[in-house]
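Let us begin with a simple case.
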Amino acid sequence: MKTEIERIGCLEGSTGIERAVSLLKSGCVVGIPTETVYGLCANALDDGAVRMVYKAKKRPHDNPLVVHVLDRAMAEAVWDLARISPENREKLERLIEAFCPGGLTFVVPKRDGFSDTVTCGQNTVCVRFPSGEIFREVLRQSQLPIAAPSANVSGRPSGTTAGDVYADLCGEIPLVLDGGECVFGVESTILSLVGEHPTILRKGAVTKESIERIVGCVMDGGDEAVYCPGLRYRHYAPAKPVLLIEGEDCREVCRKIEEIASKEGRISLLCTDDIWGILDEKERIVYRSVGKDRTCFEEIGQSLFRAIRVLEKECANVIVSVGVSDVGLGSALMDRMRRGSTEIIRV
C-alpha cells in the first residue's frame, strides 16, 4: 500500500480532509493530528476498520481504544450515562464544561450493542472530545465517532509529527494528514467515572490538580487501570536502551551523566538546558534539548517524543534522559519517561 502525506493549511475546502473522510467512510484507516499526538483513526462503528487499526499498529487485542466524538449527540451513540451514579453524572457535566473539547478522556458505561472490538469486550468505553481543529473538522464532515490510539507502532514513542507517523506506518495506511507538530505532545488524561469516586487511570494533558479544582477529590490508579489504553504493555520506547536519571541535585545528575558517557564511549542526552549548561565533559555527548529547565512542562511535553525519535538515529550506544519535577503535568511526563526507559537510576 502506498502511504501519502497531505499538508493541511486552510480547513475550508480542504481536499485532504475530504479525502480522509471518504477513506474513513469506506472502512480505511487514516493518520490524523490531534492537539495531543497524532491518531491512527477508524470509524468506531465499523469493526472491520477497527481491526485494521490493531493490525497496522501491531497492537495487542486486549488493549482498548479511545473513541473521539464531536459533541454530546455523537457521544450518545457510544456511551450510556444512565448506568453511572447521579453524583458522577453531575461531575461529568462539570468536567465537560471545564475541559472539553480538550485532553481529558472519560471512562463510562458503553451503550448496548456498541463495539466489543473497540472496548476489548469490556462494558465500559473511553470517550474524548478532541480540540484539534483538523480532527474536529473530520468529525464534523464524517459525522462518525472515531476510534484512535496514537499513530505509531505499539510500544514506540507516540508520533507528534506527520513524519513520525510515516516512519512507523508507511505501507500500512493510505493517508496521513499533516497538521504540523502537535501542541501538547502528551496523550490525554484518562478518568474513570464508573466507580464510587472519579479515578485517574492514565496521567496526561489535564492534571489531577486541575480536575480536583472542579470536582473535588480524585483517586489514583486501581485495578481498572490495567485495562486502560496505554497501560498494559511497555510504551514510548525507542530502538536503543534508555537510561533515565532521576534526582533533584543537578550536580549529582551531571556527575552520573559524565560517568555513563565515560563508560559507554558516546551517548545521546535528552535533558533541559539548565542541566546541559553545567556539564563539564561534553565531547562524548550528542545533546537534544527538550526545554529551558525541568519545570517547563508544556515545552518539554511538546518536545519529548520528537526528541527521542531524533536521538535514536544518532551513532551512540544509549540514550540518557534526565527526569523532570514530578508534580502537575510533570507527573504525566515522568510516567512516559519511566515507561519508555530500560533502566531507572536515582541519584
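The second case is a distinct protein. As before, the sequence precedes its C-alpha cells.
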Amino acid sequence: MFSRCTGINRRAGRVMRVYESVQELEEVPPSMALTIGNFDGVHRGHGRIIEATRRAAERLGASGTAAMTFDPHPLAVLRPERAPGVLTPLPLKKRLLAETGLNVLIVIRDDFSLLNLSPEEFVDRFLMERLRPRVLVEGPDFRFGYGRSGDVETLRSLGATRGFEVVVVEPMEVQDDRGQGVVCSSSRIRQWLVDGRVETAAAALGRPYRLMGTVHAGRGIGRALGFPTANITPVEQILPAEGVYAGRVQIGDSLDDVAAAGALHPAVFSVGRAKTFVRDHPLLLEAHLLDYEEGEGGPLYDRWLAMDFIDRIRSQQRFASAEVLAEQIGRDCQRARQILGTT
C-alpha cells in the first residue's frame, strides 16, 4: 500500500508532503525542481543545495521543490560492512527537511533492483517514468546508477535529451575549531563526532548534534553519588567520542516525539566506560538533568530522550574513590551551567 504522510514546512507556512513508496509516485506533481541525496545530517551544505533548488524552481517556473532521500543508506543494502554511521534517523531527517521549505520529500526504501540500474536506466525507468522533473540540482560529487558510475556530466548529457536542466552547486566551506576552512560534508561531521569535536560538528550542522534513545534502568551509582542519571540505549546513530559533555535534553514518549522540536532541559552527558566501579568497562551513555525533578515531570524510565551535544567538558578518567568522582561531577555540572548559560 502506498504510504504518504505530512511534515510541517515552517519556512513556507505549508505542509511538506512525504511519499514513502515508489509504487505510486505519479501522485507527485511533474515538472518539479528535484534534488537527490542521502541528506544525512541535513547540514549547512545540504541547506545550500536546497536553497539553490528553490531558486531554480522560481527561475524555471517549476511546480514546486522536492528532495529524494534513501532509507537506509544505499551502502547498507549493497555493502553493509561499509555503511556509514547515521547522523539523522529518518524521523529527525523528515523534520529538518520540512523546516527548509521543501514542498515534497520522497523516501526511497533501497532495494537491489533500483540500485542496480545503470545511469541511463535510472533516468529513463525511474526519474522520467515516475517523476518527470523540470530541473535537478546536485553537488559536484553527485553519483548515481550501478556502481556509482554516473556523475553530474552524465546527468547533464541525459537531461539534454530528456528535457530537464541540471544545476550544479559548489560545496560549502566551514571553519573548523582549528581555524581551517574545510568542505562541509556528512563524512567530515561523522569524523568530528568520533573525535569528540561536537562544537565543530554543530557549526557545520547549523545546530547541536542530536542523539536519541530510550531510558533503561541503570545501576543506581549516579543517584548514590547525589547525581541521578538517565541511562540511555541509543538508536543506531554515531556516538561522540568518550568524554563528558554539556548539552540539553528533550523528553518524549516516542522516537517521533524527540525528533520534533520541544522543550529542552540543561544536562551533563557522560559517554564512556565505568572504570571507577567495574572491571569489564561496558560503554555507557548517561545524562544528568540539571533542573529536572521527577516529582514534577515523572520518572524517565522507558521514555525517550533526545540529547543535544553542545560542548565537550573533559575526557573520561579513572578516579581513586567514589568521593573524588562525586567532587568531579559537581565541577562538571558547574562547568556545564557556565557553557549553557544557566544559573
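The domain at 4-171 is CATH 3.40.50.620 (Rossmann fold). The mean pLDDT is 90.
Keep these points in mind for the review questions at the end of the chapter.
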